[in-house]
Write a structure and sequence with these properties.
The protein has about 350 residues and is α/β, with parallel strands linked by helices. Helices cover about 55% and strands about 10% of the residues.
């Protein structure tokens, strides 16, 4: 670095630019760090961002700070109307990531001659922030999905129907927050188009779309996750393909499969069939008592499935089964919206 005692007016202006942008970068990083700490509870992110702040702080030299008193900033406090539109954590993450990236770029350019080491540091951290922003957004989305799984008791699985989109929208309007879409006949092109349409509906009503089995279509439609059976793609491979922004559910009906699913990092489990069901004719019901044994120590969300309808939900609840998955009851309903409202009320009612 050149002599810090230099009084060259151009140097002072450059030092002031570096000073202002070191402040901006560190402030933006603190916003990201606090969201990682309090919003996501992700220690790895916290440690990484804190390290960036301390590196920049260590290189925030006294000569830069002293320029604040040499040249008045005539545009201090200038704001933009877009700032008041940041209504979600995701918008705050993106705007502050952008702020950090822009500030580091300015530091990189203006310190290149005066402080080559700082210029190099700014460049390296700036490229790291590009990836960090995506990771924070992905984990934020994952956190939202986990909360929906935890807080909601009704999980609706689709069946093939001509007016499928209309039925789905009706139950979304009723307040259903989790939809699993299953494919039967048709081409992959049709399946993807349908999945995208359902995803758009779910997004409009702040609900999750889970795709059954098809990881490729889940990725292509930007679904919130995937559900896998015991004969489908294994969970570890699915996680590698999906990353950690998506949720993965597993069907299981015995202790070994449940234990394996949890150890491999599944987000929820579908357990059943509870009763006989037309959709799983070849599977023998495992019954309520066995389900109670299998789930007594589970610490992730799980949904009872198989032969469940409005008439037996109260019975299930009396045995402690409070989260259920339905297929036929709503897919074949003459008034899916009204039926969904009634079921949601029944599930929310304390026995």
């Amino acid at each position: 670095m050149q002599n810090s005692n230099s009084t060259n007016f151009e140097d002072l202006r450059i030092y002031q630019i570096i000073d202002a942008n070191l402040d901006r970068a560190r402030e933006g990083l603190r916003v990201l760090e606090d969201w990682a700490r309090f919003g996501l509870g992700e220690n790895d992110f916290v440690a990484k961002i804190k390290n960036y702040r301390h590196i920049l702080g260590k290189n925030h030299l006294k000569v830069y700070k002293q320029t604040r008193n040499h040249i008045e900033d005539q545009f201090k406090g200038l704001t933009h109307q877009e700032q008041i539109k940041r209504a979600t954590p995701e918008q705050i993450i993106s705007s502050n990531s952008g702020r950090v990236q822009e500030a580091l770029r300015v530091i990189e350019e203006f310190s290149r001659v005066h402080n080559h080491e700082l210029s190099k540091i700014a460049s390296e951290i700036r490229y790291e922030i590009y990836t960090l922003e995506i990771d924070l957004l992905n984990f934020s989305n994952r956190k939202k999905s986990e909360e929906i799984l935890k807080e909601n008791h009704l999980y609706v699985i689709t069946d093939q129907k001509e007016n499928l989109l209309e039925v789905i929208e009706e139950i979304l309007i009723a307040g259903v927050k989790i939809i699993q879409h299953r494919f039967k006949t048709g081409s992959d092109k049709d399946h993807l188009q349908e999945a995208i349409q359902i995803k758009n509906l779910c997004k409009r009503y702040n609900s999750l779309l889970i795709i059954n089995d098809r990881v490729d279509i889940a990725l292509a439609s930007n679904a919130d996750g995937i559900h896998l059976g015991q004969d489908d793609l294994n969970l570890k491979t699915a996680r590698k393909l999906l990353g950690y922004s998506k949720i993965i559910g597993i069907s299981a009906n015995n202790e070994i499969d449940i234990t394996n699913a949890i150890q491999q990092g599944c987000d929820y489990i579908g357990i059943g069939p509870v009763f006989e069901t037309a959709t799983k004719k070849n599977k023998k019901p495992i019954g309520i008592e066995k389900i109670k044994i299998l789930t007594k120590d589970l610490n992730i969300p799980w949904f009872a499935i198989g032969g469940i309808c409005a008439n037996n939900i109260s019975y299930l609840k009396s045995h402690g089964l409070k989260k259920v998955a339905l297929v036929s009851q709503l897919m074949n309903s003459e008034d899916p919206k009204e039926d969904a409202i009634m079921i949601l009320k029944e599930l929310s009612h304390e026995n």
